[in-house]
Amino acid sequence: MTVPDDTLVERTLAGDAAAFSALYDRYERPLFNFVYQYVGDYEAAQDIFQETMVRAYRKLGRYQLGTSFSAWVHRIAINLAKDEFKRKKRRPISNITEGGDMGDETDMFATLAEESPGPERMLIDKDTARRVREGLSRLTREHMQVILLYVFQGMAYKEISETLGIPIGTVKSRMHYAIKELGKVLDGRL
Amino acid sequence: MRCEHVQDRILESLLAGDAELPAGIQPHVDRCPECAAELEAMRRGVTVTRLMPQMSVEPPKGMKSAVLAAIAGAETQRTPVPQAPRQVERSRSLGEILHALMLRPLPVAAAVAVLVIGTLGVYAGTRYFEVREANAIVETVRGSSALANLDTLEMADWVQETAVHRNTVAEAKLHLQRLGEASDNPKEVNRVVQGLEEKRLVEAFRALVHAAPAGADQDRRMASEVLMVLEDIQHGHQ
Q1: Mean of all residue pLDDT scores within chain B
Q2: Which listed residue, of A53, A107, A115, A119, carries a Cα 20 to 30 Å from B167's Cα?
Q3: Å from B208 to nearest chain A CA?
Q4: Are residues B156 and B209 in the same domain?
Q5: With an 8 Å Cβ cutoff, are B79 and A53 in contact?
Q6: Interface probe with B: pick from A50, A57, A134, A147, most Cβ of B within 10 Å
Q7: Looking at residue B192, what DSSP letter applies?
Q8: What is the tens place of the pLDDT at every residue in B143-153?
Q9: In chain B, what residues touch A49 (CB-CB under 8 Å)?
Q10: Which helix (H) or strand (E) segment is A174 a member of?
Q11: Are A111 and A134 in contact (CB under 8 A)?
Q12: Given pLDDT bands bounded at 50, 70 and 90, which one contains residue B85?
């Protein structure tokens, strides 16, 4: 039986280093992939992920037991990613913008499709991967957050709502829009 | 049935991986070209989401040890240790922070005073705030645009961490020792914690209680509570 996150948090706060190690193991792959897909940069994803986990540890006392640890730690990652975007004026991928208007046309995902940035587990062919990334690159950051939390974290609407601090209705509408946008881009090509 | 509702149900069904649309939805789609088009668009979109996990990447090897090393405060070549918030918060001496707080306008000073005394209570080992109490105060400060400023947020963070993690006298002493080691002015920290600042604080809060303007009952009450704690601490040292 899986030990609940909250139990691991409590044990960590009580000084049990193994408990934090277990929390880390649980979140390493999904959270790293979330960050990587969000920022579209393997190097930046490493930095953001590392700092996320360090901050999560140091601020663990502020996590409120009974809420969602997953939502809490993802909020930290998203905020750090936003800081990174601001600091380096780096876009998460391609022409994504906060407000929805399209910015420059540099297609980072297209580049990533050609040059695998890390030990990527490419279970689909490169052409399909490139198309998927093209689809993602058309989304705003807000829409991408919802999609990535759903896909990589398996979060339900409610947990996405908690993570992003937005109403469930907004999560639904963003999901609806994002799914349709992805579908349009790949229309007839998959 | 409204198209908006139908489209919501379609998306839920597709995301859930259902083989068929929910009862009552398919007939609507059959006679509604708009919803039929939505269904196809969403099917393609959901297909894409099913492909995305297959593009997952491996986290770099050694990431975990780098994170744990950073937590432990060790330097690594790959991972510069992130500046610990606690260290940032304590870049100024406690005496400087207290002094700054004493110069705040009354409502801010009164609210922050609770934080100050909460912390002092822990360090003096005579009284400390319960975790829930500390959290409530901290959230009040954080949520108030009038109260939230560099000093109050700094102190709020400090009190919360202290209250959550250090709720025994023994732990408070250990924490004090660490604080002294981390501070750029450990003597000042010790001096304050040992109660040498308390007389000044008592006088300040007595003044606050008497000077609270009409209508500022809450400020007056908070200042009174602070004063009582301060006097307790003083008596504990005598």
Answers
A1: 59
A2: A53
A3: 31
A4: yes
A5: no
A6: A50
A7: I
A8: 554 444 554 55
A9: 59, 63
A10: helix A168-185
A11: no
A12: very low
